[in-house]
């Protein structure tokens, strides 16, 4: 039900209204002056705000303007004993949905609230249907007929009907987020929010408050209450991307929240009920992290109730033509074609960056093409680009062979900007001429780490990445 704020300077009047609304199942709070109302709006999201038009200090219309600056997702109703055409016109221009003339019967108020509640539900349903249509036909579509990807999609649709936690595994760029969206949109929770958090992109000291929210005064700068991702996902799905990056301390709190189905905000004591389905994703080997003591085994089993593996693109090479056609339709003009030799070259590469890398290559080709056909000159491995891929045959991991890119020229100097290090440290030595992109990155990390004296903070500054990202790469490459 809707959360409603009543604003009026008559205390007994607001008490009657809040009790009336509570009897009908609504949650209603009262404010007897505009200042209190603004403070409440800063702390919570209200679906409907019902305000008197004349109050000491600022009037109801000015209050609506100020509330909109804080939260533009509210519906507004004004109460007035001084109704006029002019007032109604001004109110409508400011986004007021309805108004009630004082004195009024409680049935009139309930009828207005019911209409707004119905409108809000229709807007949410419309938004859901648009998002679902987009998920079926737009950028989020999962393309491919390969048995491995179809098996992952089939399993995702099958488990969507349940509320069990899901762990999606796969290399970077394979489409784990798309699979999480598919699970959400195919589930009974689809009309409610799908909330995503990319754990690796948030510093450790902020991640807890992002997940669980915080109370006003919980720490310096916490001037108002904030809801975390768990609350924002109420009734829907919370997608925890890169779950392997969660710190050991936060793993304990996350485990407790999952077990108890409730949690306190940072700086708070009140237990908040958790009503969100959890879908986690990782490109890390969690079993190795468990053996190394960097990931809790009990948390692993809580998250890994159902596991879905997304195959890398090199294991579904037959899908490349369909994927290329899909991305050409998205980024290119109508009628744009791909030359057979270009398609053959795309199929010869082993795509360490998976579908994301293929999408990047096709988008680039659509932008720089000169005619109505994408040919070899538009691909990054044409002359003057990264070079032609070298195809090797007979690898067990890749039935059709693999390919490596010639390594781009490695800069002899790495600028460190304002990192506070010695300017332009040099990477000694030369890299071998042919590497896969993944191996090329590994060698860059090794050289930078050697250059920094194996001081992680300095290595991260040299590479221009965060310490968390560096730790992830060191683990990835076993360094």
3D structure, described in words:
- It contains 18 helices and 17 strands.
- It has 479 residues and is of the alpha/beta class.
- It folds into four domains: 119 residues, Rossmann fold, CATH 3.40.50; 162 residues, 3-Layer(aba) Sandwich (Rossmann fold), CATH 3.40.50; 68 residues, Helicase, Ruva Protein, domain 3 (Orthogonal Bundle); 71 residues, Arc Repressor Mutant, subunit A (Orthogonal Bundle), CATH 1.10.10.
- It has a five-stranded parallel sheet with strand order 2-1-3-4-5, with helices on both faces. The chain has a five-stranded parallel sheet with strand order 7-8-11-6-12.
- Helix 1 links the parallel strand 1 and strand 2.
- Helix 2 runs parallel beside helix 3, helix 6 runs parallel beside helix 7 and helix 17 packs across helix 18.
- The radius of gyration is 28 Å and the shape is globular.
- About 12% of the residues have low confidence.
